């Protein structure tokens, strides 16, 4: 029988009641705008486009979406069926509106839109014009306004009969002796204009941009897509076919149709407005001029980041890649690449450019304080504070030294059981030295890595973890490795050297009893020395913020103890420097999907799977490398590290039950619907499911082993969350209650325990 803590239960229920009451009041008011609508008016809330084609049209759905996007004004949109923006507008425009109504109207008020505001005839002409741009000439349009007297709402319906579209017969480039015509013709293998395609103004614009991009890459610095013109001829056919011709406009400037080469490359590594350019020294290195008042950045170290070379043709992609590489060093605030045309003979068929690269440095030293969220699959999670000292360009080669002091505190309120209010404190100091190049025995060409030059990272850190009621854990960690971007989305990180020493101390009597009763757990703390290799792969499609579908994937692999086993000798467990060392392999993957189906409305999903396998010198994966479930970044309806392993339930008869319940296998799924409430405040409904297990039976923990019945052993919960999002800094409150508790007896696991919700406070989104 569980002992209920009345105080905590009352706190949680009160919090839930407050949140639900606020929501109810908000939407109760938001849905009651009909009383403000004038008697002879109807609120414009919907628009419909109906297409009836005369022939087969394969992309009819895309055409409909494009036509709807052209309609103006847009209908009034609702939030969960209500109109909060309209409500506050109406309230602010009555007599004596009051300060609060004025303030809310200023922040989120919305002007009403009525049926009489819709000019349907003008919209018909716009829709017909859009159809002509797609080849549907001589189409017919009509429209009507349908009014719902019961709800005081109106809908605009547009009916369009699509005529048979014009289709391309031939596409030709004018004949001319200018060399640029030959260049354009060479690119026709990549043309976007295809035989029998429907007439499309957008396709022609895209083809002009494609040719412009191609010519720029061939050195045509002054070319512009506006110099190209398309002409059509329908006189040769009677079945809605047309010929398409492409040519240059008349009187195009000569300098726009000749390629340019780079004659000089000037680099200013320490560009500042207060510098007198005439007093700067010039160092010639690698066919480039490095111009600075003193050696701020060594030319030898800066040259690999510059891909622009004397004698090369002008290339926008090379220029962009150079800017990106220089910006990745971490020593510069601004990177500005400017091209100047050099004097040239008008009869020359080749232009010349001077490439000037201006680099404005960041402050050499800085101190940064930040609030952050720490979440790891196998370690501490929660909000924290950090203080970092930064020294940039340390050895005049772009090196960065970071020295950080970190602290984090974690507590959860609510729920039931003996450990309500249990907390964790983590403190740490770490140093990180980053070289913006690859420190490797063999020199690697600067062109080998096309997108980014790998950084070499050396890390050393000491941390202290205090789990109240249980123990303190000290650790020293050192890493040496490389991190680099393969492209816009993909990042690799590999640490061929990763060493971690952990020391358990200050254990309480309660925790000593737990270890004595659980040899499996005792073993996980014994092997305190971890030395191995780690690799991380990240695909981040979230950088495309405007996309409807976004995907993120993070895969991690770690192995430890293999090299040490070649050195150490003796019987198992083997030691190195008098310390037992761990041998294990661990792999996990975290995939996330965001469906942004409406403005500020997202369905976010996440799947996580991970497993660690001990071998050789180890029977158990070290404690710090095990997984846990439950908490603000996991299954939010369960306290941190309180879920699992499997169906295990701590013995409540003990003074303290060990709530750091871990395993070497973890499965988890999360689903969340995010939507706006008011101004900076957003809401979310969520459902989480997951658990941890052991792949080897721990006799001290009943039901901890992974098996075929794992689906029935998932902890499942859901709830409601509120988030304040200030320029991507997110403060989050999530209130969750368990639906399915695997620690209960079979037949009782669907608990729907709404009386004991968990209140989570966190920084940042959960996924």
From TrEMBL:
Its primary localisation, in coarse terms, equals membrane
Gene3D superfamilies attached to this UniProt entry: membrane protein fhac: a member of the omp85/tpsb transporter family
Question: What Pfam family is a match, any one?
Answer: Omp85
State the GO CC annotations: outer membrane
Q: Where is the protein situated, by its record's location annotation? A: Membrane
Domain of life according to the entry: Bacteria
Keyword line: Cell outer membrane, Membrane, Signal, Transmembrane
Q: Which residues form the Bacterial surface antigen (D15) domain?
A: 478-752
Note the InterPro entries from the entry.
Bac_surfAg_D15 (IPR000184), D15-like (IPR039910)
Keyword Signal assigned to the entry: answer is yes
What is the protein name stated in its UniProt record? Outer membrane protein assembly factor BamA
